Amino acid sequence: MRILVVEDDRDLNRQLCEALEEAGYVVDKAFDGEEGHFLGDTEPYDAVILDIGLPEKDGITVLEEWRENDRTMPVLMLTARDRWSDKVAGIDAGADDYVAKPFHVEEVLARLRALIRRAAGLASSEIACGPLRLDTRGAKVTVDGRALKLTSHEFRLLAYLLHHVGKVVSRTELVEHLYDQDFDRDSNTIEVFVGRLRKKIGIDMIETIRGLGYRIQAPADGGQ
């Protein structure tokens, strides 16, 4: 999952990015509203953390313009604790949730997981697909109760597919949502990681749709 953090406080921006990366997300960052607006308007993100009080262009304006341009990614807005009017303005502008400063980073991560689950139509922190289970909160994967040892790249790829169970996901979409702007989009990294995942899962669940991409779904025989 790819996240954008738009926060002008450089220490807070760094803390959020480090926590997100440790949790398995790919993170892009911006320090003002103009840069943040551009990234959110041109890159596909699974969610955005957006501060209201930004230089160049405030967060409310950034969010309103995204929504006017049909950018529908979930947005978690950061507000000042004593400014209830900011919270109302953020929700009215199209924010999906907000966290008041100062906050615990763990709360931000929990709210972000909830927004991503909601966007995917999921109600639980655990995603199940046949014998495969992925715990988004603990970043753990099991098959028939057997824990899988995955690299961070393998985990991100599997998590994205499982957030879109039964749907064909193109290679381009995977690259755009799993890697930052500097990734070599002409490489065959996705194919390599899909091959590794198939071997580690040990059950035929990831299907290659020729010319279109990949689809994960429960095996017809239940994995037996």
UniProtKB/TrEMBL annotation:
<dbReference type="GO" id="GO:0005829">
    <property type="term" value="C:cytosol"/>
</dbReference>
<keyword id="KW-0805">Transcription regulation</keyword>
<keyword id="KW-0238">DNA-binding</keyword>
<feature type="domain" description="OmpR/PhoB-type">
    <location>
        <begin position="124"/>
        <end position="218"/>
    </location>
</feature>
<dbReference type="Pfam" id="PF00486">
    <property type="entry name" value="Trans_reg_C"/>
</dbReference>
<dbReference type="InterPro" id="IPR039420">
    <property type="entry name" value="WalR-like"/>
</dbReference>
<dbReference type="InterPro" id="IPR036388">
    <property type="entry name" value="WH-like_DNA-bd_sf"/>
</dbReference>
<dbReference type="InterPro" id="IPR001867">
    <property type="entry name" value="OmpR/PhoB-type_DNA-bd"/>
</dbReference>
<dbReference type="GO" id="GO:0000976">
    <property type="term" value="F:transcription cis-regulatory region binding"/>
</dbReference>
<dbReference type="GO" id="GO:0000156">
    <property type="term" value="F:phosphorelay response regulator activity"/>
</dbReference>
<keyword id="KW-0804">Transcription</keyword>
<dbReference type="GO" id="GO:0006355">
    <property type="term" value="P:regulation of DNA-templated transcription"/>
</dbReference>
<feature type="modified residue" description="4-aspartylphosphate">
    <location>
        <position position="51"/>
    </location>
</feature>
<dbReference type="GO" id="GO:0032993">
    <property type="term" value="C:protein-DNA complex"/>
</dbReference>
<protein>
    <submittedName>
        <fullName>Response regulator transcription factor</fullName>
    </submittedName>
</protein>
<feature type="domain" description="Response regulatory">
    <location>
        <begin position="2"/>
        <end position="116"/>
    </location>
</feature>
<keyword id="KW-0597">Phosphoprotein</keyword>
<dbReference type="InterPro" id="IPR016032">
    <property type="entry name" value="Sig_transdc_resp-reg_C-effctor"/>
</dbReference>
<dbReference type="InterPro" id="IPR011006">
    <property type="entry name" value="CheY-like_superfamily"/>
</dbReference>
<feature type="DNA-binding region" description="OmpR/PhoB-type">
    <location>
        <begin position="124"/>
        <end position="218"/>
    </location>
</feature>
<dbReference type="Pfam" id="PF00072">
    <property type="entry name" value="Response_reg"/>
</dbReference>
<dbReference type="InterPro" id="IPR001789">
    <property type="entry name" value="Sig_transdc_resp-reg_receiver"/>
</dbReference>
<keyword id="KW-0902">Two-component regulatory system</keyword>
